[in-house]
Design a protein that fits this description.
The structure holds two protein chains of two kinds. Chain A is of the alpha/beta class. Chain A has 18 helices and 22 strands. Chain A has three domains: about 10-240, Rossmann fold (3-Layer(aba) Sandwich); about 250-335 and about 425-509, Rossmann fold (3-Layer(aba) Sandwich); about 350-420, no CATH class. A six-stranded mixed beta sheet of chain A has the order 6-7-8-3-9-10, with helices on both faces. Chain A has a six-stranded mixed beta sheet with strand order 16-19-20-13-21-22, with helices on both faces. In chain A, β19 (about 425-430), α15 and β20 (about 455-460) form a beta-alpha-beta unit. In chain A, α14 (about 405-420) runs parallel beside α15 (about 435-450). The two termini of chain A are about 30 Å apart. By secondary structure, chain B is mostly helical. Chain B is globular. Chain B starts with a helix and ends in a 23-residue tail after the last helix. The chains are: A alpha/beta, B mainly alpha. Chains A and B meet through α2 and α3 of A and α7 and α8 of B.
Chain lengths: ~500, ~325
C-alpha cells in the first residue's frame, strides 16, 4: 500500500535536539511517503514526540533539515507547519472545553468568517465532516464529549485546514479498545485517500495492525526503518528495548514472609476510569520486585494505593500482616513504608523550603526531631547534614532551598530520605528517571543496600533495562493488569517486551 | 408628603448613582477585557488614579480645553502603565497578583504625588449633559434617568454592545476567549498568546484610565488624593459578579454604584440607623458593596458545590496563569 510512486511527503535529515544539555535526538533521519501509515515506535523518552514536535513546528531543531513535499522548511510555529500541510494531534488535546465542537474547529483559522454565527459555523463543520467521513455533534461542548470524540475533533480541525500529513501522538493511549479500532479504520481510510499518517505508539499490536512501514527510535537514535510486512512483534520489541547490562547485580530467590501483599486490588485513576484491575502481588522481605511496563498502564496508581494516597475500589493491601485499607498516609508511613514518588518535585519535596526541612519532611513529627509542638532545631540540622553527606547531595548549604538543587541532587535527597524511613517496604517509582549515569548508579546502590538489609522493595520503572538489572522478580503490568510474574533467572527480555506491549502469556509463548 | 420626600431622595440617588457607576463600569470593562484573555490586573485602583491625575494635569497645566482630549491623555497615561504591567506579567511571566498589587499601590502613590499641588483646584473643562430636548419632558424623573453626558451612554450602552458583539459574534472574539480558556490550544492553532494578552491588557488599562479621567472631568470636578476610593476594587468585583459577561457588567456596575452613592447620600443627609442604636449609617453602608461581592462570589461557588455546573459564568480557565510554550 505504498502508492503514489513512493514519493516522500516529509523527510527529516540529520535532526538533532537537546534539552538542557541532554540529547533527545541525535542526527535522526526519517522519511514518510504519501499514502502510507508510518508507525514511529520506541520506549518512553526515545525521542518520538520530540521528532514530531519538530516536524509540526512546536520545537525547532538544533541541527538538520525538514523537507516537506520536496521543499525545505523552517517552521517557527505550529501555524507555519499547518500552512505547509503538516498537522499534529497531541496526546494532550488542545481543545477549549467550554466551547462547541464547531467553534473549536474554527479557532485561530483565517478562513473562519470574521463575523460568525453558531449556525454558520455548524454548517461549515458539517460540510468538513461529510468530506472526511468523521462525525461528531458540532453543537456539543467539548467537555460533554468522550475522549474518542474529542480526538476526532482534533483530527477534523487539522484536516479542515488542509493538512496532508497527519501526525498522531500516542493516539490510542486514552482510547477504549473499541474507539481504538474505529481510529485504525479512520487512519487507513485517510492513507488510502493519499494522505500521510505518522502514528506514534509503543504498542506493538498497533504497529502491526495499522502501519505500512515503521521506524524504531531508541535513546534518540534511529534503529531501523522498514516495511511492516514481514516484521514480527518480537523483533520490534528487541529493537525498542535494546540489549545491554551495565552493572552486575546478584539476583536472589527469597522465600521469607511477605512484607507487602495485594489481593484483588482495583482502583480508579484521577479521571474516574479503572486503572488497576484485580491486581495480586507479593513482595517479600529482602527482595526487589520490579514492575515492568510502559508508563501510564497503572503504575502511578499502584504506588499510590500502597502508600494510602489513593483509595481502593476493591481488594486488600497488607503491610507486615496489617491491612492498610482504612489507614491514613501517616499510619502507613509509621509501619515503615518509604515512597520515592514518581513526581519528586510535586510530591517528593517542598521546593521553596530549605534542604534541611526537606530532609525531615517524612518524619519531622517523630521524637527524634520534635518535642511537643516545637522542632528540635539542632537535631534537624545534624540529621540533614548527615543525610546530605551520605547521599552526596551537592548543595551550597543545607539552608538553601530545595528548588536551588539540580534535579539529580533533588532525587538523591528524596531517595536517601525515603530509604532511611523505610524499615519494611520501599516503594520506588521511576527512581532514576532523568538522572545522569552517576546519579542513577548511586540511587540504585541505595536501593540495593535496602534490599540487602532485609527491606522489601517495589521498583516501578518504565526503563526495562533497569527493571531487569535490579529485580529479583519481575511483574509485567499492562492496562492495569499483571500480565505475568517471573524469577530474574527465567526472565526473557523479548518475552517481557511482548507482554508490555499487550500480548498475553499464551500469545507471547 | 413623605412619599414626595422618598421620591426626591430616590431620584437624587439615581441621578448621582448613574454617573458615579460609569467609573466602575469603565474600569470593570477594562478589567474584563484583560481577564477574558487570561490577564488579571489587580491594579485598577492605581490605573484610575493615573487616568484621573493626567487628565487634571492636561486641563490645569497644559491648557487642554476639550474634555475628550483630556480624557484621551489620561487614557494614554494609564495605557503606558498597563503596558509596563503587561510586559512584566506576559512577556516575563511575573506573578500577576504581585505586579497587579504593585501597580495598584504604585499608581495611587504616583497620582497623589503628581496631584499634590493641584488639590481642590476646580476643573472647568467638563463633559456636558446631553439634553434630548423636545423628545422628553424635562421633569425630575426623566432627567435623573436620562439626562447625562455622552460618556455615560458610551459606558453603559456603546461599550457593552460592542464588546458583546466582538466576544460572541466574531472570529476575533472566539480566539480571544480561547486565549483566556486554554492558551495552549490557541497557540496550537496559531493565535499569538503573548501578543493578544499584551494588547488587551493595554487596551483594558486605557479604559480604566478613562474611568479615572471621567471622575475629574464630570462629577468630582477637582483633584483630591486617593481619588478612586475603592472603585477599582469594586470594578474587579463587578467583573466576577457579571460572570465575565459585558451586559451583566452594566447591572453590576449600577448595583455597586448605587451602593457607593447611597453611602455618600446617607452621609450628606445624616441618615441614622433605626436599630443597633447607630446614629450614623455610613459604617454599614460602606461595608455593603463588599458584602454583596462576597455573596455574588459565593452563589456560583455554591451552585458548583450543589452539582450544577455554571460554566457560562465561570472565570476564564487560564486566568492569572502565565503561558509558556516550552513548558508542558
Amino acid at each position: 500500500m505504498t502508492g503514489d510512486g513512493k514519493r516522500p511527503s516529509v523527510e527529516a535529515r540529520g535532526i538533532s535536539k537537546a534539552f538542557g544539555g541532554v540529547a533527545a535526538l541525535d542526527a535522526v533521519d526519517f522519511e514518510v511517503r504519501w499514502s502510507e501509515v508510518h508507525a514511529l515506535v520506541g520506549e518512553n523518552g526515545a525521542g518520538k514526540t520530540t521528532l514530531c514536535n519538530i516536524l509540526a513546528g512546536i520545537y525547532r531543531a538544533d541541527a538538520g533539515q525538514v523537507i516537506v513535499d520536496g521543499t525545505e522548511r523552517d517552521f517557527r510555529s505550529p501555524a507555519h507547519a499547518i500552512d505547509a500541510g503538516v498537522g499534529m494531534v497531541h496526546q494532550h488535546f488542545r481543545l477549549v472545553e467550554p466551547m462547541t465542537v464547531a467553534e473549536n474547529i474554527h479557532l485561530g483559522w483565517p478562513e473562519t468568517p470574521g463575523v460568525v454565527s453558531q449556525r454558520a459555523l455548524v454548517d461549515r463543520t458539517e460540510r468538513f465532516m461529510s468530506e472526511t467521513g468523521l462525525h461528531v455533534d458540532p453543537t456539543a461542548k467539548i467537555w460533554q464529549l468522550s475522549v474518542g470524540e474529542q480526538q476526532r475533533v482534533e483530527i477534523l480541525r487539522v484536516l479542515a485546514r488542509g493538512a496532508r500529513v497527519l501526525i498522531l501522538d500516542e493516539p490510542t493511549a486514552v482510547l477504549t479498545a473499541k474507539e481504538a479500532e474505529e481510529l485504525f479504520a479512520v487512519v487507513r481510510e485517510l492513507a488510502a485517500g493519499g494522505l500521510s499518517v505518522i502514528f506514534i505508539t509503543h504498542k506493538l499490536r498497533e504497529v502491526l495492525a495499522v502501519s505500512d512501514r515503521l521506524t524504531v527510535l531508541r535513546h534518540g537514535i534511529r534503529e531501523i526503518t522498514r516495511p511492516t510486512e514481514g516484521a514480527t512483534a518480537s523483533e520490534i520489541a528487541r529493537l525498542m528495548t535494546g540489549e545491554e547490562r551495565v552493572l552486575d547485580v546478584e539476583h536472589r530467590v527469597v522465600t521469607g514472609d511477605p512484607a507487602l501483599e495485594l489481593r484483588g486490588v482495583s482502583a480508579l485513576n484521577d479521571r474516574g476510569i479503572t486503572a488497576l484491575h484485580d491486581v495480586d502481588l507479593t513482595v517479600r522481605s529482602g527482595e526487589i520486585l520490579g514492575i515492568a511496563g510502559v508508563s501510564g498502564n497503572g503504575q502511578t496508581e499502584l504506588a499510590e494505593v500502597i502508600c494510602a494516597l489513593r483509595g481502593l475500589e476493591s481488594g486488600s493491601i497488607t503491610v507486615d500482616g496489617s491491612g492498610t485499607a482504612s489507614m491514613s498516609v501517616r499510619a502507613v508511613t509509621d509501619l515503615g513504608v518509604g515512597h520515592i514518588p514518581e513526581d519528586r518535585i510535586g510530591t517528593g519535596m517542598v521546593l521553596s523550603a530549605s534542604v534541611k526541612d526537606n530532609a525531615v519532611l517524612h518524619n519531622y513529627w517523630t521524637e527524634q526531631f520534635a518535642q511537643g509542638l516545637t522542632l528540635n532545631r539542632q537535631g534537624v540540622i545534624d540529621f540533614a547534614r548527615r543525610l546530605v553527606e551520605a547521599a552526596r547531595v551537592q548543595t551550597r548549604s543545607i539552608f538553601a532551598t530545595a528548588g536551588q538543587l539540580s534535579g539529580g541532587n533533588q532525587q538523591r535527597l528524596v531517595a536517601r530520605r525515603e530509604a532511611l524511613a523505610a524499615d519494611r517496604l520501599l516503594v520506588a517509582a521511576h527512581p532514576t528517571r532523568g538522572l545522569d549515569v552517576n546519579a542513577a548508579q548511586e540511587v540504585r546502590s541505595t536501593i540495593l543496600g535496602k534490599r540487602d538489609s532485609g527491606c522489601a522493595v517495589l521498583l516501578i520503572s518504565d526503563d526495562l533495562d533497569e527493571v531487569l538489572l535490579m529485580s529479583d522478580r519481575i511483574a509485567v503490568i499492562y492496562e492495569g493488569r499483571i500480565m505475568g510474574v517471573f524469577e530474574a533467572a527465567e526472565a526473557d527480555r523479548e518475552h517481557i517486551g511482548l507482554l508490555m506491549g499487550g500480548h498475553s502469556m499464551s500469545e507471547a509463548g | 408628603m413623605i412619599l414626595a420626600i422618598i421620591e426626591n431622595a430616590f431620584l437624587s440617588l439615581i441621578g448621582s448613582a448613574i454617573p458615579a457607576s460609569a467609573v466602575v463600569m469603565l474600569a470593570a470593562t477594562g478589567a474584563m477585557l484583560g481577564e477574558r484573555v487570561g490577564v488579571l490586573n489587580l491594579g485598577q485602583e492605581g490605573l484610575i488614579g493615573i487616568g484621573a491625575v493626567y487628565s487634571v494635569i492636561a486641563v490645569l497645566s497644559w491648557g487642554v480645553e476639550s474634555p475628550w482630549l483630556a480624557m484621551l491623555i489620561g487614557m494614554i497615561a494609564a495605557a503606558v502603565a498597563g503596558l509596563i504591567f503587561a510586559v512584566c506579567v506576559v512577556a516575563f511571566r511575573a506573578s500577576q497578583v504581585l505586579v497587579g498589587l504593585a501597580l495598584a499601590l504604585g499608581g495611587i502613590g504616583l497620582s497623589n504625588q503628581l496631584g499634590v499641588n493641584r488639590n481642590g483646584t476646580p476643573i472647568q473643562t467638563l463633559f456636558r449633559e446631553v439634553n434630548p430636548g423636545g423628545v422628553l419632558d424635562n421633569n425630575d424623573a426623566v432627567s435623573a434617568f436620562f439626562f447625562h453626558d455622552p460618556v455615560v451612554y458610551i459606558a453603559y450602552v456603546g461599550l457593552p454592545v460592542v464588546l458583546y458583539f466582538v466576544l460572541f459574534r466574531t472570529r476575533h472574539g472566539m480566539n480571544m476567549k480561547a486565549v483566556g480558556e486554554n492558551p495552549a490550544a490557541a497557540d496550537a492553532v496559531g493565535v499569538s498568546v503573548t501578543g493578544w494578552r499584551i494588547f488587551y491588557s493595554v487596551l483594558g488599562a486605557a479604559l480604566t484610565g478613562a474611568g479615572g479621567a471621567y471622575m475629574v472631568l464630570s462629577f468630582t470636578p477637582t483633584w483630591s488624593p486617593d481619588i478612586a476610593r475603592g472603585r477599582g476594587w469594586v470594578a474587579l468585583a463587578v467583573v466576577i459578579f457579571a460572570g465575565w459577561r459585558p451586559g451583566w457588567a452594566v447591572a453590576g456596575a449600577l448595583l455597586y454604584g448605587s451602593m457607593i452613592s447611597l453611602d455618600t447620600t446617607a452621609q450628606a443627609r445624616g441618615w441614622g440607623l433605626p436599630f443597633m442604636g447607630a446614629s450614623d449609617l455610613s459604617f454599614f453602608l460602606s461595608m455593603l458593596p463588599y458584602v454583596v461581592t462576597l455573596v455574588a462570589i459565593l452563589i456560583p461557588a455554591g451552585a458548583v458545590k450543589l452539582g450544577r455546573r455554571v460554566r457560562s459564568t465561570a472565570a476564564p480557565a487560564a486566568l492569572a496563569i502565565p503561558y509558556s510554550r516550552e513548558e508542558r
